[in-house]
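User: I'm writing a tutorial on reading structure tokens. Could you give me a worked example: one chain, its sequence, then its tokens, then a sentence or two explaining what the tokens reveal?
Assistant: Sure. Here is the example chain.
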Amino acid sequence: MSVRRFLTALVASCVVCGAASLAQAQTAAPKAAKDAAKDAVKPAAAAKPAAVAKPAARPESAAAAVAGGAEPTLIGQFGTWGAYTATPNGKKVCFALAKPSSSKTNPPNRPRDPAYAFVSTRPAEKVTNEVSVMIGYALKPGSESTLEVGGASFAMYTQGDGLWIKNAAEEERLVEAMRKSADAVIKGVSAKGTETTDTFSLKGLAQALDRLAQDCRR
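And here are its predicted structure tokens:
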């Protein structure tokens, strides 16, 4: 199963979790759950090529389990970031998830699916704080995107509608910059040539990651 399907499954599961929590306080949201379930079975894009994938970082097994019903649990909301855990096949997966605080397209008002940013940890695969983005549209094949944070710009590898840092050696520096900064800006170009700029508030990310670090040790 592809990395894209993994991210889509996580988003769908989180939306379902959020709908269930809201139902306890107000009323149920069956349409949101239905839409999330529909999104979870969208065709998957090609998997990230081995040449740029990190060793032992491919999440196919987690993706299959999450898509098959390993529903994540919200363990805390920190600013704009939700902290979640799941245990597919008995292996814990922890991740922080947020939507953009603002999005722009050029030309203006071009339609797209929702975008999400993830910072995920998979202890069984020795993966810690992996940054990825599901951008909400098919990116221009062969294009690169950038993630700007803390005065630095990081090149992002693109595949389908997913983004990952191009130079894995810079990921720790990227996460530290995200912990200390107010926001992150992600720029990309769609397959149709539309330019996008998404701004993610980083309020609460450091706290979410600290909480996940504690929970993922258990």
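What the tokens reveal: Confidence is low (pLDDT under 50) at residues 1-5, 12-68. Residues 120 and 129 are 5 Å apart (CA to CA).
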